[in-house]
Design brief:
five-stranded antiparallel sheet; globular; mainly beta; single chain; four-stranded antiparallel sheet; 0% helix
Amino acid sequence: MSLTTGRGPLSARPAGRFSVPIPSPVDYVEPFRRRVRGRVAGRTVIDSEQVLLVHRPGQPPTYAFPEKDVVAEAARPEPIAAGYVHVPWDAVEEWYEEDERVFGHARNPYHRVDCLRTARHLRVEVAGVTLVDTADPIGVYETALEPRLYVRPDQVNTDLLRPSTTTTYCSYKGTASYWTVETGDVVIEDVAWSYEDPRPESLPIAGLLSFDGTRVTVVHDLPEAAPVL
């Protein structure tokens, strides 16, 4: 995320601009000053304190390791770092940064989640029925992504919602649970999601709901992105 995806500066659709043209596409590689380990079937196949983090357009960051630190069969030379190799994420069963397990992909040091109290107005409707109408949400401002508004369950007409079996995982917010709306004969799957047990940086939105504007009508007064002149 952040540098190379969403609206990040090295993505295909950057939100801003550089003062002079840069090559496109361009990769960025930097030291990643954490111990990274990978385990397969209980066996450590990667253990390195000389890790590089590689950012490529349209992809989450990936690790690169000195060849001597890797015994994984799936290791391949890293094209932009001589003497380093990369290992596909799915070729390793358990990844660790220091002693904390990492899920989904390598976490990006440039990705930030800010959860701010706000008086922005949010209204959510489906099939002529109001689900939410409040001016007391939490604004989530996440690097390179569009801002979103989250609301407490007591601000939602939860009588129309039922839990979905869908879940997704975000490396920065945690596991999201989804909600389906039922009103009359109308059933729309996965109109909202919530993080019941979010990662530490996202604790202010624990148990709050946000709504998918492609599935229901979402009206808010968040500002449009300013033009970059």
